[in-house]
Design brief:
The protein is of the alpha+beta class. Helices cover 58% and strands 16% of the residues. Strand 2 and strand 3 form a beta hairpin. The chain is globular and about 60 Å long.
Length: 173
Amino acid sequence: MLRNLATSLINSREERIVTTLPKAKELRPFVERAITLSRRARSLEDGDARALHLRRQAAGFFHAGNMTVASLTGRRGQLRPERTAGVAALRRLFNELGERYKDRPGGYTRILKLGHRDGDAAELAIIELVDNPREIEAVAAEKKRKSAGKKKGSKKAAKTESTADTDNADQSE
C-alpha cells in the first residue's frame, strides 16, 4: 500500500494526493527516505557504482507495476513492454526531485488535514511535496501582486503630493 501511495505521490502532476491521515503519516518517512537517496546519488559522480546502488535501493520504495504489452513498436516490429508507473516515478525522482531538493536537508513533504469523510468519518489529509511548481507560482504571483500594489500606491502618493504642492502654490499667491 505504501509503495502504491509513494508512486502516486511522485507521479502526480500536482505532487499531492488525498488519503487518510494515518496513511499520510506513515507515507511521509517512506517518501522522504526515497528523496534522500536521490539527493545522495545526485552528489556522487556520474557512472559511480554507489549512485547505481542508491538508485536500486530507491526502486524498492515504488510499485513495480504489471508488465503489459503495449503494441507493436520499433523498427523490427518487436513487442515492447510498456513503462510502468514505478519506473516513471524513479526516473522523476532522480532527474527532477533530486535536483529540486539538493540544498534542502529534509522535510520534503507537508501534511494538511482536511476534516472527516462523510461515509465513514475517517480523517482525510493531503500529503504534498513542498516547493512544488504550483506553490512557487503562487508565491511569485503574490510578490507580483504586492509590487503592483506598491507601484499604484506610490503613484497615488505622488499624485496627492503634487496636488498638495499646487494647492500650496495657490494659497501663497
